[in-house]
Write a structure and sequence with these properties.
With 375 residues, the protein is α/β, with parallel strands linked by helices. The protein has two domains: 244 residues, Purple Acid Phosphatase, chain A, domain 2 (4-Layer Sandwich), CATH 3.60.21; 125 residues, no CATH class. It contains ten helices and 14 strands. Helix 1 packs parallel to helix 2.
Amino acid sequence: MKFVHTADLQIGMIAPGAGTAARQLQDARVEVLRAILRGGAEKTADFVVIAGDMFENNRVSRTLSTQVARILEEAKPLRVFILPGNHDYYGPTTVYAREEFLKLGEHVKVFTERKPFVVPGCDVTLYPSPCFEARSNESPVRGVSTQPGTKYHVAVLHGSVPGRIGRNEEEDDYFPMTEQELRSLGMDYVALGHWHSLHPDPDEEPTSPFFYSGTPEPTRFGESMSGYALLVELDGEKRTVTKVPTGQYRFLDIPKHIAGETDVADLKRVLADISEPEKTLLRLQVSGIVSIGVRNLLDQLVEEMESKFASVQLDDAELSLEPDERDLAQFSRGGIAQTAFRILQEKQKEAPESERAKYHRAIALAYRAFKSELE
């Protein structure tokens, strides 16, 4: 038998920081659900498991939840099993109590209790542990244990495994589970949701008892291995877990140290070689000490790339400005801009090392304020 494991679609996500690409990212999260269900049918999967957070929250619009319900209905006869996660938890205001979900056919089931479920026509029992609140210190593993009656056993859980990958402490506290707990379950497979990065990589840890599928459509910068679903095949004692690319968009970080014009030119060549820029959200992380002339070239490059990429962000927190005489000559002699830069540079030279950073920031602010005089 085989099934598809996905989670954390976060449909209805606002996509802050994505700029003009926000709407495209929102639409992509709906379309990736359609694509996963279509792919499951094409691969003759017995069912699809969504291990929590299909929705960003329980306040998504009725229009959006109706659209999702229609996609699920159109998947028939492919069976779809949905676990409420911490974002779309099963509570008094749950999205899953809306009429459009209550009217879905029997091929769609939302797990609303911690109760083993034998999949009709399959020799497998699912052990779901839905979330009933947004945050909890309770382990999703509590009360989960295999029962006789089927050949295969699959747990469907939503929560964190502290210490497994680099996440912040607050998120690691949500629905915590230990590796030992997960291994002691004795399941043929543990389908996890909550972390947006696929983990572990089945190519590197094929025998791992548990897997996070990660979000099938990337949500932000810093995610590793997002944009996949997992195809799980169980054949006797043999188990195969295969990652299937699903993401339409990608978030790409490019670090670059800049000292002069040639570095900006090098960066431009790197950006020109990036495939599918219209599907790429780009963050340039620049560092170094540059003149105003070089900084202006960098800004011009960013403006040029904004018309080619889905979104462009410039992280210049580590980029310092040191205006030279050629820079200052571009401003009116004795004018406000030229005077401001000279004063700030003198103050910076006189300041102790511990205070120089604030003058770097002040010079950067002055550049933004007087940049129009360069145009």
